[in-house]
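PROTOCOL LOG
Step 1. Enter all chains and additional molecules of the complex.
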Amino acid sequence: KQEVTQIPAALSVPEGENLVLNCSFTDSAIYNLQWFRQDPGKGLTSLLLIQSSQREQTSGRLNASLDKSSGRSTLYIAASQPGDSATYLCAVLKTSYDKVIFGPGTSLSVIP
Amino acid sequence: DAGVTQSPTHLIKTRGQQVTLRCSPKSGHDTVSWYQQALGQGPQFIFQYYEEEERQRGNFPDRFSGHQFPNYSSELNVNALLLGDSALYLCASSLASYNEQFFGPGTRLTVL
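Step 2. Run joint prediction.
Step 3. Record the structure below.
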């Protein structure tokens, strides 16, 4: 059974700092992994999608890496801004027709 | 191009009642997935619809049912509501199940 965890559960950093969010999954046989952002009480915004054959994806100040052998993905945020404050969730898809499994999320607060 | 839309935004029901939530996928998408998100937790997969049929189902009782229409829009029905059904219900669409998922803003259901 696939389980997804995220560490830390909450993180508070000063503006401008570079930071790393972690996502771990127990079954390394995944199809893809997706990172999302969620503002309080809102839906999820897709940030990056990494296919199982890829090692990393980049979008602006965001970089996500994937290491299937160790069951880990990291989301790197460069030069953090107060507008980055939100909950960040990772989600894993095991096969092309399987259900998506979400982690519990990391709540990020960037202090001006 | 409209993204994923959901209606209603908020809903208040009493125990034992029935509720129907609606979702319109992003233009060009053919797959709709439904999730339940309790406060402070990651979304939990309810089921997925493709070509008007339920293709995958999570660990939810039969009180949760759904439907997909020929235009790919979808409904989530919950019968015999319980207090524990109070949550944010999210709809996501994709082109086939294994591609990037795009989420709607969600429907906040409160059961009294």
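Step 4. Note key features.
The first strand of chain B starts at residue 5 and ends at 7.
Chain B is about 0% helix and 50% strand.
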